[in-house]
Amino acid sequence: MLRDKMAEMPTTTALGVEVPDSLSAKYTGSFAYFTVKDRLPQILTKAVDTVHRNMETFFEKYGQEGVEAEKRAISLMSKLRNELQTDKPVLPLTDGLPDADQWNEYLEHLQAGPDTEEPSWFKSPWLYMECYMYRRIQESLQLNPPMCDFDVFNEAKTQSFFTSQQAIIAICTYFLEMKNKIKCFKDTQLKAEFLLLAQVALWGNRCDLSISGGRENSQKLNPLTSLESLKPSILVDDSEFVWEVLINRKKNKTSETTCTRIDIVLDNSGFELVTDLILADFLLASGLADVIHFHGKSIPWFVSDTTKKDFDWTLKQMQAANHMQMSRCGVMWEKNMNQGVWIYHDHLFWTLPHEFCDMPLVAHDLYAELQKSNLIFFKGDLNYRKLTGDRKWSYTVSFDTALRGFQPAPLCSLRTLKADIQVGLKPGQGEQLAASDAEWMISGRFAIIQFSNSYQT
Ligand SMILES: O=P(O)(O)OC[C@@]1(O)O[C@H](CO)[C@@H](O)[C@@H]1O
Ligand SMILES: [Mn+2]
Question: Which ipTM value was assigned to this complex?
Answer without folding.
Answer: 0.98
